[in-house]
Description:
Elements: H1 3-6, E1 13-23, E2 51-63, E3 67-72, E4 77-83, E5 88-94, H2 99-106, E6 110-114, E7 133-134, E8 143-145, E9 159-163, E10 171-173, E11 180-182, H3 185-188, H4 194-198, E12 202-208, E13 212-215, E14 229-238, E15 248-258, E16 261-271, E17 284-290, E18 293-304, E19 307-308, E20 315-316, E21 319-323
Antiparallel strand pairs: 1-2, 1-15, 2-5, 3-4, 5-18, 6-14, 7-14, 8-13, 9-12, 9-14, 10-11, 12-13, 15-16, 16-18, 16-21, 17-18, 19-20
Amino acid sequence: MSTSALRTAMVPIARQMRAYFAPVNRATETPTIFDPAGGAFVLNVPPSPWIDLGWIEHFERSHSTPTDVVRSGGRSLGTTQFRGPLEARVDFNFVEWGKLQMALACGSEHMNVLAPMSGGTPSPSGATPAPGISVMPGSTASELIFGSGAASAFPVGSLIAVDVDYQQQTGYVGSGIAAAYVSSAAAVKWDPNYVRRVTFNVGRVAEVTANSVLLSQPLPGGAPANGASVQKVVAFVDREGGSFFQEWSGLFVAEEESGGRVCFYYPRLSPNPGTQTNESGAREQLVDVAKPLAAISLKASFVALPFTDTNDGQTVLCYRSYFPASAAAAY
């Protein structure tokens, strides 16, 4: 078979781009690694801790890393190149809405609106909530065990937040995933529910047994910590402003229809919506479905932060991987 007959398999053709995010360890700034040599990345069942955030639109990568030339001699001839400060960005629209999609589009603390108690003090980020119910030892990321009869408080379909009480600690809070940074205990005051207000350990109840609830998806922050409690979540809310910056590892996959798969991996992405490339600075976009109906998509914009490659010590922002189609030419 001639080489030209094989070249048609060298053009990657994809329907849409798909987004996956995984937490960065904020204490050590260690990202979640995507290893292209680590076997097939199954899009519908991504390996933990990667979270599937669905299809995205208007995906755009850009960089503004300058390069210049060292010149020498009487005619100032170029002798070598060098790179200036590294900078790269990613912009796109989330088609689907969820807690993490909202948090990434917002960029700061993202909050769970906990079910309120009767007579609680109103607040734009959620009124005083009803007390949490303690989780028993033996609970996992997929099954939460309670004392006798307590599981009935969370019927099938309930959204729940699972985390520890706030106990006046400072620093990053949130089990498994840093959800906020508390610089002063006085700011959070007496609220024992604060960690559950911001935690990413949120799930949907799929089944209720005599003393436990089973979740439709494992908790992204992992099994409940000792002393964790559960509260119902009635909504999600984010805010313009706040001092906390989210940071996640991002993987964007052009699922192959033919010609191979293309992946863009950013070890460290921080939402940076204040400098979005769209001229209006819009945070949401209406997309006509069939007038007067329109879908609402979330605009997201990120700046890439540096990562040191362990194979050669180079400082990088992004990796682009190509998995050629079967029998495609190498070049």
